[in-house]
Amino acid sequence: MSIDDLSGLRVLLAEDELHVLLLIEDFLKELGCEVHAVTTFDDALAAAASADIDAAVLDVNLHGRKSFPAAEALARRRIPIVFSSGYANQGQGEVWRDCPWLQKPFMVEQLGRALRTALRAAPAARPRRDADP
């Protein structure tokens, strides 16, 4: 699989709003991705630690809890991350500044670009331990 071709890419999608989850899931499928969708912080954390995935799209706020612990688990596994938020990149901090951020609402083309960017930057996607999230 090349970075430009997202067909077969296994993506963890963590999103707490069901209608938004369904829309993003449709976008990912349109891009050719296989989707592992979760709606809670605990499920996102568990999937980040062990799911068989190639990349992740994480809503920053999952029912009032920041998804950064899941992002840390993904980064330890060297899995590329795209963040999504209704609040742009507020709260991003220096730790995650190299990861693509999508402000909701976004289009399928923007999601595709963000995933490709994350895949290209995968080695740099690990968090810096000297900065606060």
Overview of this protein structure:
This protein has 133 residues and is an alpha/beta fold. The chain has a single domain, classed as Rossmann fold. 34% of the residues lie in helices and 20% in strands. It contains four helices and seven strands. It has helices at residues 18-30, 41-50, 68-76, 108-120; strands at 10-14, 34-38, 55-59, 61-62, 65-66, 81-85, 101-103. The strands form two sheets. The protein has a five-stranded parallel β-sheet with strand order 2-1-3-6-7, with helices on both faces. Strands 4-5 form a two-stranded antiparallel ribbon. A hairpin with a 2-residue loop joins strand 4 and strand 5. Helix 2 packs parallel to helix 3. The longest helix is centred in the N-terminal third of the chain and has 13 residues, at 18-30. The chain is globular, with a radius of gyration of 13 Å. 37% of the residues are buried. Mean pLDDT is 87; it is low at 124-133.
What are the main properties of this structure?
133 residues; disordered C terminus; Rossmann fold; alpha/beta; 4 helices; two-stranded antiparallel ribbon
Number of strands: 7
Radius of gyration (CA) equals: 13 Å
How is the largest sheet built, in terms of strand order? 2-1-3-6-7
The averaged pLDDT comes out at: 87
Total number of helices: 4
Order of helices and strands: EHEHEEEHEEH
- The helix/strand class is alpha/beta
Q: Helicity level, as a percent range? A: 25-40%
At CATH level 3, the topology is: Rossmann fold
- Terminus-to-terminus distance: 32 Å
Coarse morphology: globular
Give the strand content. 15-25%
Poorly predicted runs are 124-133
CATH class descriptor? Alpha Beta
What count of structural domains? 1
